[in-house]
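Inverse folding, one chain.
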């Protein structure tokens, strides 16, 4: 009886909203996480893209992450507050080679605060510096990133959507933090092994991944 009850219990769902300027790699980040692919050509997100991915957290906990990828031009749009509403996690994404994309996160965060000012529970906010594969072109210093995190109690992440470096780890840590789950060293190392496999796959297949599967498909973590 208990086995069948376990099988029938639904996955826990978390809503994560990805915010930031256009060209910071928000869609690439979501696609790399949900589909393990990277599109080389920039395509502007108009309004909203939506991704789903199931991950496994310690305690054999199945979590379905709803990743809402909000277009960079929607900061003044009427729908933005509706996209943000009800989110358990917010990813503020900037390009480490583009200082203005970092400065503009203040405006994005102000919208988040306004939407949640009367809410009893506040979303976890993560500061995500993307494009660490372009470290040699970095214009936003790491200490500036960390200071912004400390001032606002954000969690801190550096990723490369292009190579996959630390992308899965970023989403895993955010989901675990929201649920109050501590990841031990072995679990973090396992995530890094997943990342390294992604990087190898990327270098072996740089041009063949051009087909986009349905964005709402469920992908179980292997």
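Residues assigned per position:
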């Amino acid at each position: 009886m208990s086995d069948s009850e376990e099988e029938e219990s639904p996955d826990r769902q978390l809503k994560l909203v990805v915010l930031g300027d256009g060209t910071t790699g928000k869609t690439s980040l979501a696609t790399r996480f949900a589909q393990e692919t990277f599109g080389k050509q920039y395509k502007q997100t108009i309004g909203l893209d939506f991704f789903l991915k199931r991950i496994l957290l310690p305690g054999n906990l199945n979590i379905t992450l709803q990743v809402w990828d909000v277009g960079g031009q929607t900061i003044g749009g009427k729908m933005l507050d509706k996209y943000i509403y009800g989110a358990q996690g917010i990813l503020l994404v900037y390009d480490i080679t583009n200082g203005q994309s970092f400065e503009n996160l203040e405006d994005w965060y102000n919208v988040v605060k306004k939407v949640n000012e009367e809410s009893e529970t506040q979303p976890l906010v993560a500061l995500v510096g993307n494009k660490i594969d372009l470290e040699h072109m970095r214009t936003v210093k790491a200490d500036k990133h960390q200071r912004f995190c400390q001032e606002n109690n954000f969690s801190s992440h550096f990723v490369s959507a292009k190579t996959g470096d630390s992308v899965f780890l970023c989403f895993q840590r955010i989901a675990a933090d929201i649920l109050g789950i501590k990841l031990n060293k072995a679990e973090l190392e396992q995530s890094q092994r997943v990342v390294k496999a992604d990087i190898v796959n990327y270098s072996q297949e740089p041009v063949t991944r051009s087909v986009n599967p349905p964005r709402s498909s469920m992908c179980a973590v292997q």
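The chain has one domain: 12-191. The first strand starts at residue 12 and ends at 19.
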